[in-house]
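One record is kept unedited as follows:
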Amino acid sequence: MARMLNTRMSSESILNNAIRHQRLCKQVVGAEHLATAIQIVIDKLKGKHSISLTALEDKGAAYDNVVLKDTILDDVIRDISDAAKQYDRKNIGRGIYTNLFPNGKTTSITNVSYSQEPIEADKFLSRFDKFEEGNSLLAHKAPLTAAITDLRTMISAYKLAIDNEQMALEVESSAQDDVIRQYEFNYLDAAKLFGKKYTNRLFPKTPKSKKKQIIEEALTK
């Protein structure tokens, strides 16, 4: 029995079946126009699927950038922590570390979510405004500001990449529908021309056993 396509199938599976159907049509006199009819939607799905894959890669790259910039910001905060402790050892009674880290630890900033960390880091940065001019810890303000900005920029880029991938997948889904629809049209047209029994020869058959189906899908992905 011919295997009809459906929206639960991946683009790879849809394309595999459509291309196999097309090859079979090219070998049968009188069915060549069916191969031509489905070529346009096959090419369209190939293009949209490629765009989705690129969008997925871009999203992965954007996420890696977020992780990297978050790590850099964490390092800057830990460096400030070490510098503040050293400052207090040299300046007994100043309590700079407590001013910067009221709860006594860096993890209240570094261990929050990626989206929350720039917010917490901004609060941390504002505490430098209390320092008098000439305080050696003010040298850390510029790299801290840069690290916060870089992380926030990468988070925005990641959110954009997520949106772009979602749009690409929606467009790809529409292209899948076009192939599925044309595949069904081809089946109906072929049935009118050749009869249902012969028409089944022009469409990839559904494996009889689940084991064979699993093997086939594994080979085509």
